[in-house]
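INFO  loader      accepted 1 record
INFO  loader      residues=445
INFO  predictor   begin
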Amino acid sequence: LAEMVPLCDAKAAEYNERNMLRASEDAALTEAIAILNKDSSFNLFGRVKATSADARFIQTAAIQGHSPARSATRSSALHLLQEAGTSPRLAKVMALLEADNPFAVVLKEIEKMLEVITEEAKIDKDKLDWCNDERKETKAKIDKKEGEIAELEKKIDKLTSEIEKPKTGLLAMIETTDTELQENAANQKEETKERTEDNLVYQANIKNLVEAEGLVSAAIKVLTKYYDSLDKYDKKEAEEVKKLPGEDEARPETWESEKGYQGQSGAGTKVIKTLQFILDNTEKEEKEAHKDEMAAQHTFEDSMTKLKGEERKLQKSLAKLKKTLADKQAELLESQKSLKETVAVKEAAEAYLLKIKPGCDFITENYDKRGKHRAAESKALAKAAKLLKGTPAYKAAESQSELESLGSCRDTCEKAGRSHAKCKACLADVEVPGYCAGHPETDGC
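INFO  predictor   done
INFO  writer      dumping tokens
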């Protein structure tokens, strides 16, 4: 592209210069023909030796005479065309004149040039319209894609934030929820372990309490039974110690004052009471242990129910978050893909504008100038043709050509006239009455 820009600028400058030269040569050609075709010019050239000698310009094969005026006209026209510069069109006209071509040939070439100019104008108009349409449509496409790119980038930023933003992003929320689930599971495990251990302690304690209660109860039962059995040994009065025959004095007193056998019944009663106290406290302790165990079990069950409920909520939340994450990630990938495709379309459109820029810039910047040049060319060529057709030689040649085209009807048409029924019937190769039947308005019918 960097190499093409200077080249295109040079070509554009050269084209403008060539257009100027073409316009100048057409103006010169038209002015030369106008000058040479004047009646005063013909009369003047006929009186001047330089412009009347060796006249060779022949209008048609049917005219064999030579005109000094035509030779002078050709020489003057060639001189003026040479002064106007060089161009393919002028060169061709000059070549035709130098080759002694009749005016019919020159006029035919001028007609071709006019057709080429008309076609060139159409091509320029089509190219300008095409460039304008292509640029307009492509710029509209670029503007549209730029809007889409802005929206996609905004959407991608939003999705990225929703996924990756610290604390509130989906990834952070999933990590937090997963951590809470792990903590919940650990809490359940720990509380279950503690409950199991506490229950084992409770069971061992209850076992010990029950055994203690059994032992104390058995002891109380034994002692109570024993001391109850001493009732039959009770006496109302203390036994008197008497001197036996042959004894100097009475034997020493032992337990006679006990009013029967009392043993350790007094202390035993205290022991039994003590054992009963111990038994009561042990039973009370057992009841408290059962009560504490039941309360601990209820607390455990309530805590586990709460933890299970939180676990279900966390699992449900985690599943929802993961689904949302999958949807957002899929949407993000699709948006990134769309952005890449949209950028590619925009860049392709921009590259396309750069590709057509040299040609379209040229036709846009030079369209009016080219149109003016073509208008000048067309005007000059049309005027030249008109002037050529107005020359006596061309009119004579046309008249001679027209007479020759009449063929065998030439004498009839010359006598009666071209518009008479006789001439027209002859040309149509029918009888006059037959022609007049179909053309009653014709002169002579």
